């Protein structure tokens, strides 16, 4: 059966893509952030996943205010990034795994999750920036990617518990899939940040570090927050914590934290990195 070998929490800030395009990784503003991924690169080299499941949120590229699914899953042969501005060159497409995607979709529906299945899907920085961070130089062509989009932009949004449960269901689906593929799970976004309004630039470092700690050994302790709580405590974009919770939910066995890093501010955001290995 397919096996989840580990999971990574990572930021997906669009300015990261601009920094990569401009080779700014060693500049004072960016160095601590990018250095936080070096242990992850080494771990990926040693473990070589075949498939990457990415929990992300679409920022208005393919899902806008007229159509906004709570949960959407890609079941396409490939995923292309469309122009989001910033003057960045087009990066290579990500290849899909249609067979595993359909297996996950069927298992989720059986598990009473109502999902949107996308046989065509454009992906934004929420998915592409994490791939660029994990595999510098856009060297991810050997991988297959399964995008899982969670609504974190337009109310009503799913609760932290519902997102954690989604991850649980996807974890069970992966481990019931008849394949010897090794699967890596990425939870992307945030952590605390607010990009507009009177609290623009708001970051809650204490809350971010608490969540990163709880995610490792006691995720149940942070599932009681409501979306309103997250907005108040972690900023208007704080609900992006839900992607990290979904990532953590997929890990069904004992886990070990191998690495973490936290840098502020990165583009007015609390930028966290977390590497978890499933024993």
How would you explain this protein's 3D organization?
With 279 residues, the protein is α/β, with parallel strands linked by helices. It has one domain (3-278): LigB-like (Protocatechuate 4,5-dioxygenase, Chain B). It is 33% helix and 22% strand. The protein contains 9 helices and 11 strands. Strands 1, 2, 3, 4, 5, 6, 7, 8, 9, 10 and 11 form an 11-stranded mixed beta sheet that branches. The two termini are 16 Å apart.
List the helices and strands and how they pair.
Blueprint: E1 3-10, H1 14-21, H2 31-35, H3 38-47, E2 51-56, E3 71-74, E4 78-81, E5 94-96, H4 98-110, E6 116-118, E7 122-123, H5 125-134, E8 144-150, H6 160-175, E9 182-188, H7 205-217, H8 227-234, H9 241-249, E10 255-263, E11 271-278
Parallel strand pairs: 1-9, 2-8, 2-9, 3-6, 4-7, 5-8
Antiparallel strand pairs: 1-11, 3-8, 4-5, 10-11
Helix pairs in contact: 1-5, 4-6, 6-9
What would you say about this model in short?
By secondary structure, the protein is an alpha/beta fold. It has helices at residues 14-21, 31-35, 38-47, 98-110, 125-134, 160-175, 205-217, 227-234, 241-249, and strands spanning 3-10, 51-56, 71-74, 78-81, 94-96, 116-118, 122-123, 144-150, 182-188, 255-263, 271-278.
